[in-house]
Amino acid sequence: MEVDLRGTMRNFATGVCIATTYADDNSGRRHDALTVNSLTSVSLGPPLVSISLRQGSTFLADLLTTKVWALSILDAGTHDLARVFAQSRDVRAEAVRTLSARPGEHTGALIVDAPAWLECELRDQFDAGDHTVLIGSVVAAGQQHRRPPIVFLHGRFHALKGEL
Ligand SMILES: Cc1cc2nc3c(=O)[nH]c(=O)nc-3n(C[C@H](O)[C@H](O)[C@H](O)COP(=O)(O)O)c2cc1C
């Protein structure tokens, strides 16, 4: 029996964040940003998180070179960013230039103007199937009160309506 993992996981609500990293070459620093919902809190002491990225991704290649990244947790007012940064690298490269963001003090990776953010340094990595799992040491984090976060469920973005 073939397992329908994608179909089943559509029922699992997640938050949505923008992962950022960069590559340095002769022409300077080239930032990239990617929509990600595989963020998991792994350990509190020391603070560790994980994300899982598709093997073959150019974003992953950049991240494995710089060994740093940032994660910005999106709110309901920024769902348009989630759509843009789930597109091809060319589209993302254009969009990243006009992104409302600042370089993180500890990593240099862009932190988006969003309700909460983390800066990470690569601690561990392992390939799992067609993805690579990255364990990051959280070297800085912050939050500010904003609109409720986005929820990704059934392949769509939702605004959280309130507490049960
Ligand atoms: C809500 C949402 C969550 C996503 N989460 C992930 C993720 O955790 N890992 C991943 O590799 N791709 C994820 N993606 C897909 C990437 O954002 C998208 O495929 C990316 O633009 C492909 O870039 P690449 O060719 O550089 O890999 C997600 C897309 C959406 C819409």
Break the fold down into its secondary structure elements and pairings.
Layout: H1 5-9, E1 17-25, E2 28-36, E3 40-43, E4 48-54, H2 58-66, E5 68-73, H3 79-84, H4 89-96, E6 101-103, E7 110-112, E8 116-128, E9 131-143, E10 150-153, E11 156-159
Antiparallel strand pairs: 1-2, 1-5, 3-4, 4-9, 5-8, 6-7, 8-9, 10-11
Bound molecules: flavin mononucleotide.
Protein name: Oxidoreductase
Family: Belongs to the non-flavoprotein flavin reductase family.
Domain Flavin reductase like: 9-159
Summarize the structure in words:
Residues 9-159 form the Flavin reductase like domain. One of its GO terms (molecular function) is FMN binding. It holds the Pfam family Flavin_Reduct. It comes from Sphaerimonospora thailandensis. Keywords: Oxidoreductase. The protein is 17% helix and 46% strand. With 164 residues, it is an alpha+beta fold. The protein has a single domain, classed as Pnp Oxidase, Chain A. 28% of the residues are buried. It has helices at residues 5-9, 58-66, 79-84, 89-96, and strands spanning 17-25, 28-36, 40-43, 48-54, 68-73, 101-103, 110-112, 116-128, 131-143, 150-153, 156-159. Strands 2-1-5-8-9-4-3 form a seven-stranded antiparallel sheet. Strands 6-7 form a two-stranded antiparallel ribbon. A two-stranded antiparallel ribbon has the order 10-11. The protein binds flavin mononucleotide. The site of flavin mononucleotide (FMN) has 18 residues, from strand 2, strand 4 and helix 2.
Shape: globular
| Residue windows where pLDDT falls under 50 for at least 5 positions | none
Summed over residues and divided by their number, the pLDDT gives a mean of: 95
Q: Give me the strand/helix succession.
A: HEEEEHEHHEEEEEE
Radius of gyration: 16 Å
Structural class determined from secondary elements: alpha+beta
Reported for the largest beta sheet, the result is: 7 strands, antiparallel
Bound heterogens, unique:
flavin mononucleotide
CATH topology: Pnp Oxidase, Chain A
Number of helical runs?
4
Q: How much of the residues is beta strand, in percent?
A: over 45%
The neighbouring-strand order within the major sheet is 2-1-5-8-9-4-3
What is the annotated CATH architecture?
A: Roll
CATH first level: Mainly Beta
| Annotation, overall tally of beta strands | 11
Q: How many discrete domains?
A: 1
In whole angstroms, the N-to-C terminal distance is 37 Å
Output the CATH homologous superfamily. Electron Transport, Fmn-binding Protein, Chain A
How much helix, percentage-wise, in residues? 10-25%
Protein name: Oxidoreductase
Family: Belongs to the non-flavoprotein flavin reductase family.
GO molecular function: FMN binding; riboflavin reductase (NADPH) activity
Pfam families: Flavin_Reduct (PF01613)
